[in-house]
Design a protein that fits this description.
It is built from two helices and no strands. It is mainly α.
Amino acid sequence: MLPPFLCSPSPGREWRQHHQARKMDMLRFWRDGLERQLAAINAVITTLETQMDRDSSNQV
């Protein structure tokens, strides 16, 4: 019995469209994850800046 990847139809228009759609889904998944991480980092930076400003104003 052949592995599934050898049983797929020969590369044609439908195969190419399917491959590109799966690739787009994967790239969007990665981008969504990176956007979540970036949002979290921005929130931490904002919080830290607020704390630093508060601490510097308390010392004066």
